[in-house]
Amino acid sequence: MADLVYRNIMKDLKNRIQANEFESKKLPDERSLSESYGVSRSSIKRALNVLANQGIIFKKRGSGTFINPLYQKNQTIFQYEGSNLGVTDSFKSDGQTPQIKLLDFKVIPASEELQTELFLNPGEFVYEIKRLRSFDDSPFMIELGYIPIRVAPELNKERVEGSIFNYFEDATGTSVTKSFMTITADPSTKEDQELLGLKPVEPVGVMEGIFFLDDGTPFEVSNMRIHYKYLNYNTFVNLDEDK
Amino acid sequence: MADLVYRNIMKDLKNRIQANEFESKKLPDERSLSESYGVSRSSIKRALNVLANQGIIFKKRGSGTFINPLYQKNQTIFQYEGSNLGVTDSFKSDGQTPQIKLLDFKVIPASEELQTELFLNPGEFVYEIKRLRSFDDSPFMIELGYIPIRVAPELNKERVEGSIFNYFEDATGTSVTKSFMTITADPSTKEDQELLGLKPVEPVGVMEGIFFLDDGTPFEVSNMRIHYKYLNYNTFVNLDEDK
DNA sequence: AAGTGGTCTAGACCACTAC
DNA sequence: TAGTGGTCTAGACCACTTA
């Protein structure tokens, strides 16, 4: 995994960009890079494409490859690299202490809706996991998740009080890399107000999503109600389609 | 543009998937496709990668290429294809009539923040465009946009009452294909309540974004305050990084 | 005309899965 | 062991930009 040619070059170029090595904001042309790295031009293209998809560089046919000026200026909005699977990860970097309080944990039969979303057969069971997430003792998110027992039979109360994704990745070697997310806003309910410390006039952001494993297996359906001050979802959209 | 090999194959495969031609949910292997389409395997891979990025198929090394079961089941959440540059486009399909009311339109010097975000020199001017967007006479979004006069010198009051992106694409041939979006939620202000018909307790969703042209030129900074019932932002996230 | 990125090919070899 | 997707190469030719 770590020995992929294009990936190493991608990382190296990213470091060189961050180190401000290319003051002209222009990268060497692909044929030069091919020669200096001692790899084929295809591999260079592939590395550059990954960087372009992350919004770090952009390519202009006939002119060259340039560094996105916003990348160095405003690195906070370019957090694609780490993860934007959910808010969870976006807050890890703050140096604050993340906490998880388990509100509810049980096994129930999958509703019809869950059967569809998680691709389950009638009669299959799911964990229902309700958690309150905080940073430095201030709660920011109520998370209601459903995970089929079939895909994660080893879950228990203790494991659910930490990162389920991390536990699952450690235990099985497969990771959660794809998701559909829907983002909406909603007035806060009484429960939101109590758990998140909101005034009645203050809203929550709602993120609903289905998370998938590498191989396409649906892993979790999650509904997250988030203190409006903490919802901050960043995306980089590229409609070029080809990536 | 329309004669690209991988693009044509991509479209053809998408049609065949939608026509339910592959009942086993499994596509032919890449080498067979290569032969039957009469192109190199690289081109097949490229076509398949685009489909995989759209979440339509997924590939499993050693096993084959499969159709994402959710694609056929729940096509509504897969609207990546059309556009998710903003809410604007997501609502076009509803068969409702979109309306734009121009609230304000002037030219002002770019603030420091705008200079940074739009990559302008001090002293440059931008259009400030404030619009209220409705469907069937019910307002759903207040849009405050800033566009450098340098990149769109031909804007006028009339053109701003329609789709600026469409006008610009028609006029110049370059289109807006990339964006950074930040999504948050916010209690509604008095103005929000008046313009969008909200109760004081009802919130707005806020989408802020920078839109870029193909070549990376920043085109617009936009701040959209959206009636919470109409904010519905869908994304497909793929952390595989390589695309 | 020279330079640069884009598309496409033909084929070698590797890594993983299923039988 | 056979089949499948992943990585990588070396090179041809095309399309666009700049001078």
Q: Tell me the CATH topology of the largest domain in chain A.
A: Chorismate lyase
What's the total count of β strands of chain A? 10
Average residue pLDDT of chain A: 80
The biggest sheet of chain A, with number of strands, parallel, antiparallel or mixed sense and barrel status, is: 6 strands, antiparallel
The oligomeric state is homodimer
- The strand order across the widest sheet of chain A is 4-5-6-9-8-7
CATH class group of the largest domain in chain A: Alpha Beta
| Strand percent estimate of chain A | 25-35%
Separation, N- and C-terminal Cα atoms of chain A = 20 Å
- The name of the CATH architecture of the largest domain in chain A is 3-Layer(aba) Sandwich
| Low-pLDDT ranges of chain A | 74-94
Helices of chain A, by number, come to: 8
Q: Would you write up a description of this structure?
A:
2 copies of one chain form a homodimer. Chain A has 243 residues and is of the alpha+beta class. The first copy, chain A, folds into 2 domains: 5-77, Winged helix-like DNA-binding domain superfamily/Winged helix DNA-binding domain (Arc Repressor Mutant, subunit A), CATH 1.10.10.10; 87-227, Chorismate lyase-like (Chorismate lyase). Chain A is built from 8 helices and 10 strands. Chain A has a 6-stranded antiparallel sheet. A 3-stranded antiparallel sheet of chain A has the order 1-3-2. In chain A, helix 1 crosses helix 3 and helix 2 packs across helix 3. Chain A is elongated. The two termini of chain A are 20 Å apart. Mean pLDDT of chain A is 80; it is low at 74-94. Chains A and B meet through helix 3, helix 4, strand 7, strand 8 and strand 10 of A and helix 3, helix 4, strand 7, strand 8 and strand 10 of B. The first copy, chain A, binds a DNA duplex (19 and 19 nucleotides) through residues 4-6, 29-31, 39-43, 45-46, 48, 59-65. Chains A, B: Keywords: DNA-binding, Transcription, Transcription regulation. Chains A, B: GO terms for molecular function: DNA binding; DNA-binding transcription factor activity. Chains A, B: This is GntR family transcriptional regulator. Chains A, B: InterPro entries: Bact_HTH_transcr_reg, Chorismate_lyase_/UTRA_dom_sf, Tscrpt_reg_HTH_GntR, UTRA, WH-like_DNA-bd_sf, WH_DNA-bd_sf. Chains A, B: Residues 3-70 form the HTH gntR-type domain.
